[in-house]
Design brief:
150 residues, alpha/beta, Rossmann fold, five-stranded parallel β-sheet, two-stranded antiparallel sheet, 4 helices, 7 strands, 31% helix, globular
Length: 150
């Protein structure tokens, strides 16, 4: 049995984060990360209305282009969140060659880290993960915690 991932809370406020993809999953990642980071770039030819809005508000930078390896240059953290497994796996390969931690939305076995469900209240931050195994249980646990902490 593979050991579980260790939950690590770290300051990402000044980290350069790249999200490849700009659909619903990428949008959820962006909205969560905005609570913790200021330097978020999103690369995709098309984007959700919310991604476009965040770009127009200058809260993120949307690079309206398909993925290319040079986009990860200088990134501290990368999330591959496209609906194209081949593209996601290319992102992973490029990141691994450069020692950049990477997460992908399509295959948990390829992730260097998992993107947790997050509950925040004041100074309290709770991250919830099932090791990529049970997303519905994580979602339900997040909802229960939010109700409990209100």
């Amino acid at each position: 049995m593979k050991k579980p991932y260790f939950p690590l809370f770290t300051d990402i406020s000044q980290k350069k984060i790249l999200i490849v993809g700009a659909g619903k999953i990428a949008q959820r990642r962006v909205e969560t990360l905005l609570e913790f980071a200021d330097n978020i770039r999103v690369a995709a030819p098309q984007a959700t209305d919310r991604i476009r809005q965040l770009h127009e508000e200058k809260r993120i930078l949307w690079i309206q282009d398909s993925y290319r390896a040079d986009l990860i240059k200088g990134a501290d953290l990368v999330l591959a969140a496209t609906d194209d497994p081949v593209c996601n796996e290319q992102v992973i390969e490029d990141c691994r060659m450069r020692g950049i931690p990477v997460n992908t939305s399509h295959k948990k076995e390829l992730c260097d880290f998992y993107f947790p469900a997050i509950v925040r209240q004041g100074d309290l931050t709770i991250g919830i993960s099932s090791g990529g195994c049970n997303h519905s249980e994580v979602k339900e646990t997040r909802k229960k915690l939010e109700r409990t902490l209100k």
